[in-house]
Design brief:
43% helix, five-stranded mixed β-sheet, alpha+beta
């Protein structure tokens, strides 16, 4: 007789690891259709992109509302979108449907 394995419990650590694995650099030009649909959300550099994505994925509305109120998380504004478009900027991005969260965080090579 074999033991029945219980279904995998999604701990916060496991969810964050999954979000991390789905986070990647992408050129702003590839996000245009999502920006046009109003689905792109910018995350301030003072926040961790994975932590913000986790809060969105778990519907932690009080925390998200606090970031929105403080301007640390907001829909990408037209002036920022144009700047990224003109620079063909690469951003960190992760999809937490229906949102695409982006952060303009330099890579280690850009810091040197």
């Amino acid at each position: 007789m074999t033991a029945i394995t219980p279904p995998e419990v999604e701990t916060p650590e496991l969810i964050k690891a999954k979000i991390t694995s789905e986070t990647a650099r992408i050129n702003w030009l590839e996000l245009q259709k999502f920006y046009a649909a109003g689905s792109v959300v910018a995350v301030d550099l003072s926040l961790d992109l994975v932590d913000v994505a986790y809060a969105f994925s778990q519907d932690h509305s009080q925390q998200v509302q606090s970031w929105l109120t403080q301007g640390q998380v907001k829909r990408v504004e037209e002036a920022q979108a144009k700047q990224w478009f003109d620079a063909e900027q690469e951003l960190w991005a992760v999809v937490i449907a229906p949102w695409v969260l982006v952060q303009d965080k330099p890579t280690a090579s850009q810091l040197n």
